Amino acid sequence: MQQIVHTIIEEARRYKAKEVSKVILQIGELTFLGEEQLKFAFDILKEDTIMENAELVIEKIKAEVKCECGYQGGIEYGLKEEFHLMFPILKCPRCGKEVEIVRGRECLIKSVEMEIEENVAVEG
Ligand SMILES: [Zn+2]
Questions:
Q1: Degrees (nearest 5) of the Cα angle 12, 18, 20?
Q2: How far does residue 95's CA lie from ligand 1's centre (Å)?
Q3: How confident is the model at residue 1 (pLDDT cuts 50, 70, 90)?
Q4: Residues 42/1, Cβ–Cβ less than 8 Å
Q5: Domain 2-115 adopts which CATH fold?
Q6: Domain ranges in the chain?
Q7: Ligand 1 centroid vs 67 CA: distance in angstroms?
Q8: Whole-number Å distance between alpha carbons of 114 and 117
Q9: For the segment 68-103, what is each residue's pLDDT rounded down to a tens digit?
Q10: Average pLDDT over residues 2-22
Q11: DSSP label of 37
């Protein structure tokens, strides 16, 4: 998250933005980054920066895998009894071999909205 915030601030500087108002991130489901966790980190990192008032929107990207048998699609989840949590099974649901991850590990900045004009009237 630190790197993402850093990148956004650099972008904002490049465009001479006055303020960053909204950030949309795309997070793959295999990154295991929790939304709450990310928002929490974002709120801390944005303090005293150009993006202090920015809103964070997180879009999840579904995982997709492919297998040498020709299968391509979503993954299955299993339940880890001892932890009571779901974890992804990186095996082909068709033949059981190990699969290659096509999508789901990304952590991308989809868009950044910023105020650029010098004379924006802000009421209230
Ligand atoms: Zn397969």
A1: 55
A2: 4
A3: confident
A4: yes
A5: hypothetical protein PF0899 fold (3.30.2320)
A6: 2-115
A7: 5
A8: 9
A9: 999 999 988 887 777 777 788 889 989 999 999 999
A10: 92
A11: H
* Cα angle 88-60-70, degrees, rounded to a multiple of 5: 50
Q: Is the pLDDT of residue 120 over 80?
A: no
Dihedral sign for Cα 90, 96, 98, 103, please: negative
**Ion ligand 1 nearby residues (CB, 5 A):** 67, 69, 71, 92, 94-95
| pLDDT class of 118 with cuts at 50, 70, 90 | low
Nearest to 52, CA basis, from 5, 2, 105: 5
What's the rounded Cα separation, in Å, for the pair 46 and 121? Answer: 23
Ligand 1 centroid–CA 103 distance in Å is 17
- Counting residues of the chain whose pLDDT is more than 90, the rounded percentage is 69
Q: What is the mean pLDDT of the chain?
A: 89
- Return the SS3 of 69: coil
CB atoms within 10 A of CB 11: 15
